[in-house]
Design goal:
Structural class: alpha/beta
Low-confidence stretches: 1-16, 604-622, 625-643
Number of helices: 18
Shape: globular
């Protein structure tokens, strides 16, 4: 009845799919991102089953996707879905049209190809809360810690404050600490210790009151995304077919069972002529499209709130009002600090043209230097007093990150979307001797909630994203407290000895508040003007309301969701590491249920540039400079950074 399964002879792809054709696999994974690529690769470890991984993008092969310091140039590229939210009412007032940017990876590896490589697992309390309050048995910290370690190849066990026993060695994802430590990063850690924080490993479970250098998903100076880690660098699996440029448009149900999913309808989006084909799953379909597109696909398929679906003329097959609801995100802002003396060297990432060329050569040959880090180099976590009282069993609600650079127009206007007339940062980063740096205070656990809704029945139309930022005044109070903590850190003797000067803000806004940068009215106005998403949406298909603890969609047969959308509460920190573990956990549960073989985890090979690379770089140095300047950076070269 069906043509043979179109297995690829390599790990790479199904090169073409005829329009109207149908194919069968044992497992079909929709979405090749942080969770999806992990899950598909793990399922394919059993050679007796066939796995299809459907990805709307393709390999992100541009050089910028390999250089960690180029992370600020990846938004709005062809590998970004470039979503934006509905206008915010209580925050983001200085953002263009009051709409938050939501970059999402449109590539194998998903958003792990676009992010800023911060490796933060979350607090032990986060996962224990999932198990305790949401019935997510098997998701407590003691259950997920072995999975974090299995996926990790920690390369910096001797770094200060690292608990080597809490980390894994030999896993596919390379994790490291930037070295050598930049001057301002060292001062930030010392300053935090001075005001009461302790230097420890925030990935060991306890995060409250902890400061340290960031752990980054970087291996030998190169980004370690999930495609590189789990698929591209692993031995070929003939039972894994990776389908590029395939956008899932609708789940397919059995004719004789309205609640049984059999497969998925897919559009080939490699050209403007969108041909369609069908892929069936003999065992299961797993949706791993992320917290924005997973609920979109479910709703387009008739799974969701009955009233919302009927308004768009969609037949409701399974009523699950929680689909798309309860979105949580992290809300961030930027506090800019200047050197105490003009031209003073704080050790941030700003260099002359000749130094940049040397940095490029150093990165290409040795995988070291300033290009080998995203500049997101240090961080701390803590719980505010009100949150301790209201959520005693939760992880910290505040994170403050350190960027060892002052940003540029691409960061503030193109990526975050600050309106040019309100971009006070421009006055400072336009100076050639800019040695500014940024603290990024972030609210990790909000009382406010957002949602993802269908804008239309068109599967190619972006959904409506409602952030709900600061609709609860308690969130504003926590944000203001975090800004004051940044100012306190800047005044520490360690920061002062390093040459740190005052924090600078919008002059006109500050003048409206008598020049007092610590007054509540000023900081509240600054938050309402500039606070925006840190690009960590979660919870839109959460455990307890949409999926059970095995990630099976409630009331539906043959369907699971496995990505950040299933988090019942958001983790206390950047979400990529937890998303990878969701993929790992899903694979283990599926293997157990279907009696599949589990194998010893295989790490990605440690590839270092060698002598040949050195010769090549010096031979084409001039061409490389031109390429980096005009292709990678689009103009005068400055080191870019972003959230």
């Amino acid at each position: 009845e069906f043509p043979p399964r179109p297995h690829s002879s390599t790990r790479m792809k199904l090169t073409s799919v005829p329009a109207g054709s149908r194919h069968r696999y044992d497992f079909v994974v929709i979405g090749g991102g942080s969770a999806g690529a992990t899950l598909a690769a793990r399922l394919a470890e059993d050679a007796t089953v066939s796995v299809a991984l459907i990805e709307a993008g393709t390999h992100a092969t541009d050089l910028a996707f390999k250089i960690p310091a180029a992370c600020g140039k990846l938004q709005h590229s062809r590998h970004d879905w470039s979503f934006s939210s509905e206008p915010s009412t209580f925050a983001s007032q200085y953002i263009k049209n009051k709409r938050n940017a939501y970059p999402r990876g449109k590539a194998l590896g998903g958003s792990s190809c676009l992010n800023y490589m911060a490796y933060v697992r979350g607090a032990a309390a986060d996962f224990d809360t999932w198990a305790r309050e949401f019935g997510a048995q098997g998701w407590a910290w003691e259950d997920v810690l072995p999975l974090f370690k299995a996926s990790e190849d920690f390369l910096s066990p001797a770094a200060d404050g690292v608990d080597a026993a809490a980390h894994g060695v030999g896993g596919p994802v390379g994790v490291s600490v930037a070295a050598p430590v930049k001057k301002i990063a060292g001062a930030f850690v010392a300053g935090a210790e001075e005001v009461g924080f302790r230097r420890a490993d925030y990935n060991a479970g306890e995060m409250d009151g902890v400061v340290n250098l960031f752990h980054q998903t970087v291996r030998n100076g190169v980004r370690s995304d999930t495609n590189t880690a789990f698929i591209a660098s692993q031995p070929a699996k003939k039972n894994l077919t990776v389908i590029h440029f395939g956008q899932a448009t609708k789940l397919l149900f059995a004719d004789d069972d309205r609640q049984k999913v059999l497969g998925v309808q897919v559009a080939d989006i490699s050209s403007t002529q969108r041909s369609e084909y069908t892929i069936f799953a003999d065992k299961e379909v797993i949706v791993s499209c992320g917290a924005i597109q997973s609920p979109q696909l479910l709703m387009l398929s008739g799974i969701g709130d009955k009233n919302d679906l009927h308004r768009l003329g969609i037949e409701c097959r399974v009523e699950l009002p929680g689909v798309g609801k309860d979105m949580e995100d992290h809300i961030a802002n930027w506090i800019r600090f200047k050197p105490a003396q003009p031209g003073a060297d704080l050790g941030n990432v700003n260099a002359t043209r000749s130094e940049r060329l040397l940095s490029l050569i150093q990165w290409a040959v040795f995988g070291t230097g300033v290009l080998a880090s995203s500049c997101y180099d240090a961080t701390l976590f803590y719980k505010t007093e009100p949150f301790k009282k209201s959520h005693p069993g939760y992880g910290p609600d505040i994170q403050i990150g350190l960027f060892c650079a002052g940003g540029d127009e691409d960061i503030f206007e193109k990526n975050i979307g600050v309106e040019p007339e309100h971009n006070f940062h421009k006055e400072y980063y336009s100076q050639p001797d800019d040695q500014d740096f940024l603290m990024v205070p972030t609210l990790l656990h909000t009382h406010s909630r957002g949602s993802v809704e269908l804008a239309s029945t068109d599967p190619f139309a972006p959904p409506k994203i409602i952030t709900g930022f600061c609709t609860d005044q308690r969130d504003m109070e926590a944000l203001v407290a975090s800004y004051r903590k940044c100012l306190e850190l800047g005044r520490s003797s360690a920061m002062q000895k390093a040459g740190v000067g005052e924090a600078v803000f919008d002059r006109e806004m500050l003048a409206r508040h008598n020049g007092d940068p610590e007054s509540y009215p000023f900081l509240e106005e600054y938050a309402r003007a500039s606070a925006s998403s840190l690009y960590h949406p979660t919870g839109t298909c959460r455990m307890s309301s949409v999926v059970d603890e095995t990630l099976k969609v409630l009331g539906v047969k043959g369907l699971r969701v496995a990505d950040a959308s299933i988090m019942p509460t958001i983790v206390s920190g950047n979400t990529n590491a937890a998303s990878i573990v969701i993929g790992e956990k899903a694979a283990l549960m599926i293997k157990k249920e279907h009696g599949l073989r589990d194998v010893v985890r295989t790490k990605a090979p440690r590839r270092r540039p060698g002598t040949l690379a050195c010769v090549a770089v010096f031979t084409v140095a001039a061409a490389t400079v031109i390429f980096v300047r005009y292709r990678l950076y689009g103009g005068p070269m400055r080191w870019h950074l972003e959230r």
